[in-house]
Amino acid sequence: MEAVFEVFLSHYNYWMAIILIMIGFYALIAKGNLVKKLIGLNIFQTAIFLFYISLAEVEGGIAPIYLPEGMEAVYVNPIPHVLILTAIVVGVSVTAVGLALIVRIYEEYGVIDEAGLLKVVKRR
Amino acid sequence: MIEHLPVILITVPILSALLILLLGWHDRRFCYPITLATILFQFVGGIALLIEVMRQGTIHYHIGGWAPPLGIEFVIDTFNGYILPIILFLAVAAAVYARRSVENEIEPEKIVSFYVLFQLLVTGLVGMTITGDIFNLYVFLEISSIAAYTLIASTRRPRACVAALNYLILGSIAGGFVLLGIGNLYVATGTLNMADIARLLPASYGLATVHTAFLLLVIGFSIKVALFPLHLWLPDAYTEAPSAVTVLISTVMAKVSVYAMFRVVFSVFTTAYFVETVPVTELILLIAAVAIVAGAVLAIAQDDLKRMLAYSSVSQIGYIVFALGVANQVALEGGLLHILGHAVMKGCLFMVAGVIIYRLGTSRFSDLKGVAATMPVTCATFALAGASMIGVPPTIGFASKYYLVMGALEAGYWVYAAVLLAGSLLAVGYIWRFIEVAYFSASSHHEDGGDHCPAPAVREAPLSMLVPMVVLGFLCLLLGIFVEPIMEIVSPAVSLLLGGA
Amino acid sequence: MKENVVIRTVSRISVPFIQVFALYVIVHGAVGAGGGFQGGVVFAASFILMFIAFGLSGVEKRLGKKWLMIYSVIGVAIYAGIGFLCLAAGGNYLEYGAVESALGVAHLHGYQIDAVEMGIGITVMAVMVSIISDMSDRGGESP
What we know:
The complex is a heterotrimer.
Chain A: H1 2-10, H2 12-30, H3 34-54, H4 79-109, H5 114-123
Helix pairs in contact in A: 2-3, 3-4
Chain B: H1 5-26, H2 31-56, E1 59-62, E2 73-76, H3 78-105, H4 111-130, H5 134-152, H6 159-189, H7 194-200, H8 208-225, H9 234-240, H10 243-268, H11 271-277, H12 281-300, H13 305-326, H14 329-360, H15 376-390, H16 396-411, H17 414-440, H18 444-448, H19 463-481, H20 483-499
Helix pairs in contact in B: 1-2, 1-4, 2-3, 2-4, 3-4, 3-10, 3-14, 3-19, 3-20, 4-5, 4-10, 5-6, 5-10, 6-8, 6-9, 8-10, 9-13, 10-14, 12-13, 12-17, 13-14, 13-16, 13-17, 14-15, 14-16, 14-19, 14-20, 15-17, 15-19, 16-17, 16-19
Chain C: H1 2-27, H2 36-62, H3 65-88, H4 96-103, H5 109-138
Helix pairs in contact in C: 1-2, 2-5, 3-5
C-alpha cells in the first residue's frame, strides 16, 4: 500500500496528465452531442500539453527568461514550452475547423446529436 | 540557388497561396494558372533535388544557420529524394485534372479557397517529406491534415461534412498520439533531431519510455495511414470528397503518411530495435495480411465505384506495411516500388471515377451499365490501371508484388506470400466488377426509354481531365517495363533505411 | 436596453487598453513571456469584445472582410520577406547573422525578430477575427 502511494506521489504530474487524457477520450467517445465531443478532443490535447510542460520542470528553476546582467539562476527547460506554443496553435485551428463543420452539419441536417445524425444520414 | 532549393520548395507554395488569395478576390480566373505554375516549378525542383542527391549524397540544409541538433534541418537522402518527385508529379496531375472537376462540384464562391487550401496541403506534404526534425514532422503533419479536412468538406454533397468531421476527430487523435510519442522520445534522449535520436537511443532500449514512444508513434501513424482496423475514416472521406481532392489525398497524402511511418520506424527506431530487441515484425505482418484480405473483401461487397476504390486503397496500404513487417532488402524494395506504383494506379482509377461523376453525376454501379460504349477511352484506361492493380505483367503492379513475394519467401514466410497472391486474386474480383458493368451490361439509358430525369450528355471526358488520366494509365505500363532505372534509385534508398540513420 | 448602454460604454473604454496591451505582448516576445501568437490573440480579443457589445455590423464597419484578408496576407508576407532577405544577403533562410554581415551593422537580430513577431501578430489577429465573423454570419441561413 505504501509502495503504491509512493509510486503515485513521486510522478504525480504524469498521473494527472494520463487521467486527464482518459477523461478527454471518454468525453470524445461516449458523449452524443457533437460539440461535447469536440470539447473532449480539446481536453485530450490540453492534457498532452500538460504532460510536456510538466516534464520541462527543473527543481528550483525559474521561468526561462533572461535575468538582468550578472544574476545567476537555474532556468527550467525552455524547449517543451516552445513546442507547446506551436501545438496550441494547431489545437486552436483544429477546434475552429471542427466547429465550422458542426455549424454546416447543423444547417444541413438540423440535428447536432450523433445518434440522430446517423438516422438522418442513413435516410437520405 | 540550388543549395537553397529545399526551403524554396516549401516557401513558394505558401507565397503562391497568398497570391491566389489576393488575386482571386478580384478575379477568379487567376487561381488556376498560378496554381499550375507553382506546382510545375515544384516538380522541376523535386527532380533537381533527386538528381543532386543521386550525384553527391545526402543534402543537409540548416534553417537559420543554426547547426543541428539544436537547429532545425532539412535532410534529403535517397529515400525522400525518391518520394518527393513522385508526390509532386501526382500533384501536377491532380492540378491539371482539377480545373473542370472543381467547376462542376464546388460552389463558385469557394473555388478561390479550394486553390489556396490545395497549395497549403502541398506545403504541408512537401515539408513533411524533407524535414529532418521530428517535431517539425508533427507540425507539417497537422498543417496538411487541417487542409485535408477542409478540402473534403468543400463540396455540395450533404454527407461530406460528416465524413470530414469523422476524419477530423480521428486525425486529431492520431496527431495527439504522435505528439505524445515525440514527447516520450524527447524524455528518453533529450534531442529532437532524427539522426541524433537514432544515435542516442540504443543506450535506452530497455526503458519503458522508449517502448511507449514506439507504440504511440506506430499507432498514431497507423491511424493516419488507415491500416486495418484503424481505417474507419477512409471510405467516407474518399467517397464524399470532390473528385480532384480524392485524387490528391488518396495518392499524395497517403504516400507521405506511409513515408513518415517508414522514416520514424526505420531511421529513428532502427531495425536494431524493432527486429532484434523487441520483435514486433510478426505482429505487423499479421495486421498487414489481415488488412490486405479484409480490404479486398470489403471492396468486392460495395456497389459504388468510389467506395470500392477506397476499400481497395485499404487493401493496398496493407501491401506496403507488409514490406515494413518483413524488413529485408528485397521486400522493402517491393514496398517502395509499390509506393510509386500505387500512387500512379490509384490516381488513375480515382480520375476515372471523377470523370464518370463529371459526365453522369453518379458513381453507383447500377447507373453505370454499358458506359463503355459512350466513354471508351475512360474505360480502357480503367482496364489498364486495373490490370496493374491486379498485378498482370509487365505493369508496375506486377513488379512491386513480385519483389514483395520474393522478399517474403526469402525470409521464410510461406503463408504470408500465399496471402499476397490471394490478395491479387481478390483484386480481380473488384476490378472485374466494374469492367463487367461497363463493357458487358446493356446500357441503362436505352432500356428505360428516357422517362426519368434526363441524363447529362454522355460523351467522352473533356481534354483537361482526359490527358492526366491517360498519362497516368500509360505510366502504369511504362514504369513496369522500364523498372530497372527506378531500381537504381530504390536500392540505395532501401540500404539507407536498413543500415539505420 | 439599460444593460446594453453599460456594456457598450465599458467596452468602448477598455478596447484601446486591450490593444495597447496586445502590442506590448507582441513586442516583448523576445525578452519575456509573450510573442506573436499570444499578442495576436489578445488583439483579436479586443475586436471580439466589440462584436459582443455592438454586434457584427459594429465590427464590420471597422474591419471588413476584405481588409481582414489583406492583413492576413501582409503578416505572412512579412515573415517570408524577412526570410528571403536573409537568403538574398547570402546566408541560409532566416539566418539573421547574414543580414548583419551584409549591411555591416551589428546587433540586428532583435529588429528582425521583432518584425517577424509583428507579422505573426497581424496574421493571427486577422484570422481570429475572420473566424468569428464568418461563423456568426451564417447561423440559421440556408446554404
